[in-house]
Amino acid sequence: MSYKIYIPIDSTALSLGADDVYKAIQDEASLRKINLQIVRNGSRGLFWLEPMIEVETSQGRIAYGPITIDDVPSLFDAEFYLGKAHSLSHGLTEEITWLKNQERLTFARAGITDPINIEEYEKLDGFQGLKNAINLKPNEIVKIVTESGLRGRGGAAFPTGIKWQTVLDTPGEKKYIVCNADEGDSGTYSDRMIMENDPFVLIEGMIIAGIAVGADQGYIYLRSEYPDALKVLNQAINIAKEKGYLGKKVLGTDFNFELEVTRAAGAYICGEETSLLESLEGKRGMVRYKPPLPAIEGLYGKPTVVNNVISLATIPIILDKGAKYYADYGMGRSKGTLPIQLAGNLKKTGLIEKAFGITLRELLYDYGEGSATGKPIKAVQVGGPLGAFIPESQFDMPLDYETFAKVNAVVGHGGIVAFDDSVDMAKMARYSFEFCAIESCGKCTPCRIGSTRGMEVIDKIKSGVEVEKNEKLLRDLAETMVHGSLCAMGGMTPFPVISALNFFPQDFGLEKTDAKA
Amino acid sequence: MALTTESEEKIKQLIDKFQNKPGALLPLMHAIQDDLGFVPEEAYPLIAKAYQLSIAEIHGFVTFYHHFRRKPSGKNILHICRAESCQSMGSESIEQYCKDKLGIDYHETTADNTLTLEPIYCLGNCACSPAVMINEKVIGRVTQSKIDQIITESKVKA
């Protein structure tokens, strides 16, 4: 008799010792002569419970976590492999409130199976979207994507269908699909999770994109900080090739699609699409002027779809279940779901895929259960290093692109970093400039010079040098950067800076005035 | 410093390998660094000649990207995440602890050549901040004692 156990291989689970737990469980099982069948699955994204192991039972999978090697003997004593009770048991995985209340569409499969087991992927509705797509005309596929309301999940929130339509309508012998997997924003890890835990869904999305716009070559531009994702993607691409999903005559059709991963080299700016294309062409990642749009003149001057990992990984379910199914989730012009990532100083962190419309407060307190340190949450930064700091007074805002835009904040890639009340917001504002100075491509002056000047001005304000004059200067500099920068790097760095200044002037040594939001 | 014959041969092989690949510089530099541990300046003229680029363009490319090293590192590389999520969980004190304990600053290598210290901006491990990466292994919820362990192990692995 053998018992089926799941131990995740996701890099966050590994960062907490999942491999050590795997070895300890193997050793203990052989010592006790218990026959275990261990599957290395992905993570469900309940990172507060990682390493979370699961046991298959006739009722469903039972979760135990967080497990350390010291817990292993007691797990065996309790006969956990039969799904029996233990102080670290959480009952049925699917019934854990945190997971149960989510709406997992893009992440429907993540964490359930061995990420590179293509048969399991197929069993869980994998490649259904592709199978529908090959029976449709390109403009019919694009129409479905447009009607789904899907907007670029990388942060810019541009309607994906419209971008595809432009590439489809632009004549060209050669077109490209480029996946932006340069997930550099702090607080975000949903791209990494898709690539490590359900790589075939990204591959499927890219093939569909290729069919839709007439592209036969795809690139995944992957940040070098993700070595585990690189391995998984390369394995998955090879398997998909062997099974006839990639290469010549995809699934026996006349459509060809080649896909490869290109390793980036640690430049945040290369997450900006034109800089990414320059880098992919083997150049410095200098931002290009727009227009021309990449959809018209992209990689090597050819029409190119550049989409974020999550946008592409959401395509298969839209093609499988239909535009309406997806668009029925969400609010206003923010259709569908957003994989939200709770990060930083929170008790319970991890991935929450929910329809747009959930409030920050629900996320931070119902899911996150407040700060990890137990102190009050002073601010959150949503959308990475270029996103505004949001004070407690705005925590009732629903997650929606337009609601956030109204208060000069961004939803971005859905990463939320929480800070407790020990944070010095002037220091965070200074860091925003510092990061911009380190990562600026240097092409435009407001970003290249403004970032360094910004640090200097904040230093002066903090040391009490001509405070009023320097505050005015700081606001003026921010305005110049917002309006004068070539891309979002310089153009949005002022968002965190000015929000910190407006909501937390006392941290800058300034009098608390009415927020000038 | 001149390249050893072995290194030069290796670089030439890699240059040939990527010769006809579009956007060759990115995979080429990775391959060189994966093999030699860094991208030696002496390789620039070889690459420039083969790919019909100027030496300045090669220099411009290598220096643009934080990932590429222009000098050898220590036997192990410890990357400390400096980004916001890690800051919210006290990464600054981890940074300082590493610098004090190793007696080096960022971009420097310990005297015994066992460890090079580098900053990094996000490892995608933000759910378990603060995070560091030793070689290619990410460690989450880092504490001073985990750092001690990493440093001890790196001396063994040296």
Q: Under the CATH scheme, which architecture of the largest domain in chain B would be assigned?
A: 3-Layer(aba) Sandwich
| Cα separation of the termini of chain B | 24 Å
Largest interface, C-beta within 8 A = A-B, 60 and 40 residues
Q: Which percent range fits the helix content of chain A?
A: 40-55%
What's the CATH class of the largest domain in chain B, please? Answer: Alpha Beta
Number of helical stretches of at least 4 residues of chain A: 21
Radius of gyration of chain B: 18 Å
Question: What would you say about this model in short?
Answer:
Chain A has 21 helices and 16 strands. Chain A is an alpha/beta fold. In chain A, strand 7 (217-222), helix 11 and strand 8 (258-263) form a beta-alpha-beta unit.
3D structure, described in words:
Chain A is α/β, with parallel strands linked by helices and 517 residues long. Chain A has helices spanning 11-15, 18-31, 72-77, 97-100, 118-123, 128-133, 138-148, 160-169, 190-197, 199-213, 227-242, 273-280, 309-321, 323-327, 360-367, 401-406, 425-439, 445-462, 467-484, 488-492, 494-503; strands spanning 2-6, 35-39, 53-57, 60-64, 89-92, 176-181, 217-222, 258-263, 304-308, 330-331, 334-335, 337-344, 350-355, 377-382, 389-391, 415-420. In chain A, helix 18 runs antiparallel to helix 19 (467-484) and helix 19 runs antiparallel to helix 21 (494-503). The mean pLDDT of chain A is 97. Chain B has a five-stranded mixed beta sheet with strand order 2-3-1-4-5, with helices on one face. Chain B is built from seven helices and five strands, in the order ααααβααββββα. Chain B folds into two domains: 5-64, no CATH class; 76-157, Glutaredoxin (3-Layer(aba) Sandwich), CATH 3.40.30. With 158 residues, chain B is an alpha+beta fold. The model of chain B has no long low-confidence stretch (mean pLDDT 96). Chain B is 48% helix and 13% strand. Chain B has helices spanning 5-18, 25-36, 43-51, 55-64, 84-88, 91-102, 144-157; strands at residues 76-81, 108-109, 115-120, 132-134, 137-139. In chain B, helix 1 runs antiparallel to helix 2, helix 1 runs parallel beside helix 3 and helix 3 crosses helix 4 (55-64). The interface between A and B is large, with 60 and 40 residues.
